[in-house]
Design a protein that fits this description.
By secondary structure, this protein is α+β, with helices and mostly antiparallel strands. The chain is built from 7 helices and 13 strands.
């Protein structure tokens, strides 16, 4: 049961790698529908500077991360914006104008893909209220976490006082253990990794602000598989709540996966494996 979140992360990594590799090999004519400018809006509204923050004021309103990812010979980039309470946006930028977008306004979580800013394929959704009522707040966010962050296990130190309420659930602490401290360049960091019997993953968090700086997954021989490097951290980004809201355009195919997730969890099967699309 403890392996659900780690396995969900690895499933998403595999999907992103397959999708990106397919695009590199098979780039050709692409069609799409109904424009969406979510990622661009968030980027324009967020402000801040500096790659590393040294201190976080209590009750910080949130943060924005810019991330580069390498998996074998394939790379992509990500942006994550988190705003209290429980609002987030994660955008994975693949090649040829393709973005994977995850949004949550605290009430509904959405996941969809765009090509040149226009929706392509199904729009997936989850009711946060129903998940919290049936699973409890901790477990609801644990189960949605890997999907919401598109392959990242978490974005904040589970023990950091500033972020423990949102990112330090009992379930997360069952899978991760703190293994020490170190440095990434000149920056002091706290190091966590997955526990015994789980796929190996290591995470580094800034000691001052508790925010993710690096995540690496490994194979059974301790060889590196996928590496995330946070290249910029912006604290207190000025992002309007409207950025996290989403109204599907007319004609979009909506797939509500709340019942599917709850059914799988009740059956003890963990999160359902994501249905693969045409490009996967």
């Amino acid at each position: 049961m403890q392996k659900r979140r780690v396995q969900a992360v690895l499933q998403i990594i595999s999907r992103l790698w397959t999708q990106t590799a397919w695009l590199i090999l098979c780039a050709g004519p692409i069609w799409a529908t109904d424009a969406v400018a979510t990622a661009q809006a968030a980027k324009k509204q967020s402000v801040g500077s500096g790659n590393h923050a040294t201190a976080v004021p209590r009750k910080n309103r949130g943060f924005e991360l810019e991330i580069t990812v390498r998996h074998g010979g394939v790379g992509w980039s990500q942006e994550v914006v988190y705003k209290r309470p429980h609002q987030w946006m994660a955008v994975t930028h693949l090649r040829f104008g393709i973005d994977n977008i995850r949004l949550c306004d605290g009430h509904t979580a959405w996941a969809f893909e765009t090509i040149d800013g226009e929706i392509d394929g199904d729009v997936r959704k989850w009711s946060i209220g129903r998940l919290v009522r049936e699973l409890g707040k901790d477990r609801a966010y644990v189960e949605l976490g890997p999907e919401a962050l598109d392959g990242l296990y978490t974005v904040a130190d589970p023990n950091a006082a500033e972020w423990a309420d949102e990112f330090g659930s009992k379930e997360v602490k069952k899978e991760l253990k703190r293994v020490g401290e170190g440095r990434l360049g000149a920056e002091p960091v706290v190091v966590w990794e997955t526990g015994k019997g789980l796929p190996k993953m290591r995470l580094w968090f800034g000691k001052g602000d508790g925010i993710l700086r690096r995540q690496i997954t490994y194979d059974d021989k301790r060889g590196e598989v996928t590496r995330w490097v946070v290249t910029k951290v912006k604290l207190e980004p000025k992002v309007d709540d409207a950025v996290f809201r989403f109204s599907p355009p007319k004609g979009a195919e909506i797939r509500d996966e709340t019942d599917e997730l709850l059914k799988a969890l009740r059956a003890g099967k963990g999160r359902p494996v994501e249905k693969k699309g045409a490009r996967d």
